[in-house]
Amino acid sequence: MIGRNSEAKRHIEAEIAKYQCAIGVNPENSSAHAMLGETYYKAGRYDEAIHEFRTAINLSPHGPHSTKWKSNLRKALELQAGAKPYDFAVCDRCRADVPTDARACPRCGTRLRMGFVEWLLQPEVLKDVGRQTAVATSIAIILLVVFSSLSLEWKACVMCATVIVGGYYALRGIGG
After folding, report:
1. What's the rounded mean pLDDT across residues 102-113?
2. Beta strands, E only, the chain
3. HSE-up of 114 (CA within 13 Å, CB side)?
4. d(C-alpha 87, C-alpha 168), whole Å
5. What pLDDT sits at residue 135?
6. Cβ neighbours of 61 (radius 10 Å)
7. For a Cys staple, 33 with which of 1, 56, 111, 128, CB 3.0–4.6 Å?
8. pLDDT of residue 1
9. Which domains can be identified in the chain, with CATH numbers?
10. Using CA atoms, how far apart are residues 151 and 134, in angstroms rounded to an integer?
11. Distance CA 104, CA 148 (A)
């Protein structure tokens, strides 16, 4: 049993050295910081794990693995606090840790969570949504006018072509 513990400890130390070397070569490597954080987490070194997870999140806040890193950070914070529940979000503007029940970042004041109507009523969002809706509605009206002016035979041809093309793209999407 003692041999296994020392072997596991050597393995963890080798992993730590490997990820520290990768960070030494490229300090902007968010994945290396996250992997180092996971290794520290396995070793029970929660302060160091928290630091590395935060670094990884700051380097790549919207990366493909950032959700996993935030979850790992949350777990490390809970264990550091003695398994006290700690739920947080990261502010997109200033990267501060913010409790998930907060509606605004205490550091920079950015709105974190809002309902659909609040989001829609923001001037820049309302402008974009209005523009896109106007374009889509205009295209639909033009197609409706053109389609209604066609003879019955042409309408049937257009419908058949639509089904064939739609079916092709549906099957192509299913097959990969």
Report:
1. 78
2. 88-90, 97-99
3. 12
4. 46
5. 92
6. 15
7. 56
8. 44
9. 2-82 (1.25.40.10), 119-175 (no CATH)
10. 28
11. 51
